[in-house]
Amino acid sequence: MATLHRPFHPVLSRRLRAALLTGAAAAVLVATPSGRAAAAPADDLAEARAAQEAVAAEVAAVSAEVRAAEEQLQRMTVEAEAAADAALVAQVRLLEAQVAADRTAAELAAAQSAVVEAEDEVADVGREVFMGGGDAYGSAAVLLDAESPEELLQRAATLEYLGDQRAGVLREHEATEAEVAQADAAARAAVTELDQARQSADAAAAAAAEHLATAQADVDAVSARKAELDARLRDAQVELLRLQGAADAEAAYAAQVAAASGASNLSAAAGAVAPTNGRVTSCYGSRWGAMHNGVDIAAPIGTPVFTPAGGVVLQAGPANGFGLAVYVQHSDGSITVYGHVNQFFVSAGDVVSAGQQIAEVGNRGQSTGPHLHFEVHIGGLYASRVNPVPWLSSVGISLGGAC
Fold this sequence. Notes:
The chain has three domains: 14-86 and 208-261, no CATH class; 88-192; 267-398, Glucose Permease (Domain IIA) (Distorted Sandwich).
């Protein structure tokens, strides 16, 4: 990316150069009774306007480079966010699989214990029936104590029945053990597969983060050049306002900037509180082939972040891709996510009310600038991430047509 080295406009007057360097432009103004400064001579105005236009042309040229670099950065950010998101989902799925595997392992241990118990019972009956060996009925004391042939047959049949019953129980336990062993093997295989998927997702997230860092460095470099030109353009514009007769050129310039910057496009019904006060810069949906699962709201670092509805904090702390994030579950089961926060003021398990500040806007994680990333999950954490607009509308929040 070539560096611009254009000099300041050659027709810049000595008076204007001095004013830009020292801020002593007031020396060319004459106060009037009305409090408005008199306009400077036409030649000075022409020179100032030409100087301002020259710097503006330089700014426009570098701005094109900035836009190209920022578009690349946004693309890398989307890819990095998607990769980090996939890694986070893979981690959640791995934890779920590990819990399932631990549960089947416990069931397998119980089934094995039941088999051992059934084996011991069958062995005990065998010993009772065939104690000491001998004829078909053995020499068990229970048979010898019979007072009649009929009672002897009854006792022998009972012992045989009890043995058969215990043998059946043993077979059932063994079948259960085999089924649970298969389930345990499947659960362990799922854990292995998901762990490999998690490792792949982590590697992809790391590679995407590296690409993002390179793109960020490019943006930082060209933005620094633009910042220098912006400062020169500002000085030229302020000086032009002074020469045009503005009594307070600085204030006039600030007013122009404020009018051009625009206001927040979020609005809230009476009693409703938006997640933060800022400008929507990105909506839910696919971008550059990757899914953006939330809404981005740009705001300065430190801007308060609120939960629009009451609920319980599920998590608050480090989150892959987000840097820091807060997760709140609401009474309808939905979960709202607040990502890239600078700091948070709640902990897991806290009960929060509608409109309560839970964090502040930040620029952590894979972020192109200070903003809040807001998501809505339905059916459980990362089960189904939906467009946040309907949910926000249901609590009285409007994005003003931004999404």
